[in-house]
Amino acid sequence: MDLERLSPRNPIKKESWWTVLTLAYQSLGVVYGDLATSPLYVYKSTFAEDITHSETNEEIFGVLSLIFWTLTLIPLVKYVFIVLRADDNGEGGTFALYSLLCRHARISSLPNFQLADEDLSEYKKTSGENLRSLKVPGWSLKNTLEKHKFLQNMLLVLALIGTCMVIGDGVLTPAISVFSAVSGLELSMSKQQHQYVEVPVVCAILIILFSLQHYGTHRLGFVFAPIVLAWLLCISTIGVYNIFHWNPHVYKALSPYYIYKFLKKTRKRGWMSLGGILLCITGSEAMFADLGHFTQLSIQIAFTFAVYPSLILAYMGQAAYLSKHHVLESDYRIGFYVSVPEQIRWPVLAIAILAAVVGSQAIITGTFSIIKQCTSLGCFPKVKIVHTSSRMHGQIYIPEINWTLMLLCLAVTVGFRDTKHISNASGLAVITVMLVTTCLMSLVIVLCWRKSSLYALAFIFFFGTIEVLYFSASLIKFLEGAWVPVALSFIFLLIMYVWHYGTLKRYEFDVQNKVSINWLLTLFGSSNLGIVRVHGIGVINTELVSGIPAIFSHFITNLPAFHQVVVFLCVKSVPVPHVKPEERFLVGRVGPKEYRLYRCIARYGYRDVHKDDVEFENDLICSIAEFIRSDKPLNYSPDPENESGTNERLTVVAASSSNLEGVQIFEDDGSDKQEPSSSSEVIVVAPSPRIKKRVRFVLPESARIDRSAEEELTELTEAREAGMAFIMGHSYVRAKSGSSVMKKIAINFGYDFLRRNSRGPCYGLSTPHASTLEVGMVYIV
């Protein structure tokens, strides 16, 4: 079923119960695959070496009690009932929390922010109150964050750490899930055979899994939910059987008293075993991260009434079986498959492998999504993003990231060759992400929800204490595998911060070297400079939202000619998940009307899908045409006090695909085509035989334009027929002399390497080589 059609961003205001239940069913396959497969490895990881299963059953009952209360407090109470409410216009995840904070306190890391961005419909704050009053909760915190750049950088680093740990989890989760599922083969063959079979089988499944990513999740998505549902029914049924068959009184172990007895007996060893217990909540973050595909209510229903009880029954069943089996003949020791009746082990093994693949698929897709968000917010080099579904929102594939994840996943599998070290690594990644969410959530409570600081302190103290306890138990195993997510996160964090730092410095250089309007007036007013205008539209790519970029003067200096129509195009991201098509473009003039210089700012949210080049070009031209049609005459007078020197007035213009009442563009090869007579047309057929296509702007029936606007539209039509040329800067960024050694390394080597190996602007990827012109510039930052 099409998730986009049923998502909360669509016209359905109030979902029916059938819609909610349908989304809840679908969320089983997309959201809960990782969490549902955790019983495969939790007990085995917990009893790996720190504690042993004794005749008194104090250990197994204590572990069961810890699992029950951990599942209840973290996924159920924290995420389902609290964190899910902190959505960013229906979107969730680490960057959603950071985006909320950026909008409620001006701490955005995006350099080209405009006040006009606050008028976006999704930018609206969750409360009408203004944080300028001393009486409003959070005023002092907001003021402190806005004043201190260091705190803003620390907040960004905190969000990036959580993001990097999610990427690290994308490496570790497929490895441990598939490894644990395949480990059931150990009960069906000898130890000698198993050690030669297990790792190759796991590697083969992982290679197949990553090799199929380019087809997209939507092609197999319809079977994901049934697989996870079958798995949940399987483990819950086995759990109920084990409870009644082996130990009906196991429910008593849910009492917190057994936690006390467990910790009293095991002491330090029990604390160290918490690193394995926390794996029972791995995948909980997906409930929040994948919120954009579903609704808050559907995710709450799925977890509360399906996933949560199934997991509790599964863990209770395993504990009931193990409480009556203290000496296990198999070297498998304490694991999931030991408690499975021998008659159904092979069918359960098959379902477990399928469920592990589904859980791995969810975290891989989530990794792609979070990389895209980082790219949109200027915190990761531009990479190739392939949208694998035209209907289902957010289904993307990133080749470079996919193959990197595969190689790292295979390296972890072959290097460790068991679930013990992989579980240590995965546990640290999982709990770090949760700690970051707790820290950001405490700020959201004060700044966005306008609650007292006491609520935030209570939240971070209660949940932070639990998570810090688990974090310390995971960190103590640094040398036993926990170093892997730390190393991976450090590498990705270094890449993200260096790219973000270099991007900011490059933008600051652009701002400081903007060309004055007087230079432009002199250029157009003098006939002795030999400047000529050529047919066509020249689109100059720039990061600036105001002023004339230095690349334009550099271009004119080297080639004293420019196009009949010049567009200064800025494609930028704003700290909201989506920008409505009717709010996509900001269009204005640069200089007097007769110069035919325009500024166009295309705004995208961090989850928006960028259009292909042809559609983007048409929307760009139509937005300018609509601006010309609706523009009111305005006498131009440069303002010498204006920093940009351009006296620009930008107008919000809808994309042509969403504005059926605005100007529409039609292109053909010159053959006559009939358009509806209810519209008026501005048609220009250029006399040059070299022009192969015909461009027409179709205006609304009620449109009334003056003579000058009609002439301007005619000239835009001729320019469009002559063709478009994209002029892009090819920058060489270097640190200025006298800079610190760290800055020189970051800019001259780190940022330069990333820039040379990253993609260009998304709309210019598939433009014909002949219509793209690169202008080299050296940036001294």
Structural overview:
By secondary structure, the chain is α/β, with parallel strands linked by helices. It is built from 25 helices and twelve strands. A seven-stranded mixed β-sheet has the order 7-5-6-4-3-11-12. Strands 8-10-9 form a three-stranded antiparallel β-sheet, with helices on one face. A two-stranded antiparallel ribbon has the order 1-2. Strand 3 (532-541), helix 22 (550-558) and strand 4 (561-573) form a beta-alpha-beta unit. The protein is elongated and about 100 Å long.
Question: What key phrases describe this protein's structure?
Answer:
25 helices; 52% helix; 781 residues; alpha/beta; disordered N terminus; 12 strands; seven-stranded mixed beta sheet; elongated
* Major sheet characteristics: 7 strands, mixed
Largest sheet, order of strands side by side? 7-5-6-4-3-11-12
The general outline is elongated
Q: Into which percentage range does the β-strand content fall?
A: 5-15%
Low-confidence stretches: 1-13, 126-131, 634-646, 671-691, 762-769
Alpha-carbon distance between the two ends:
51 Å
Main location: membrane
Function: Potassium transporter.
Family: Belongs to the HAK/KUP transporter (TC 2.A.72.3) family.
Keywords: Ion transport, Membrane, Potassium, Potassium transport, Transmembrane, Transmembrane helix, Transport
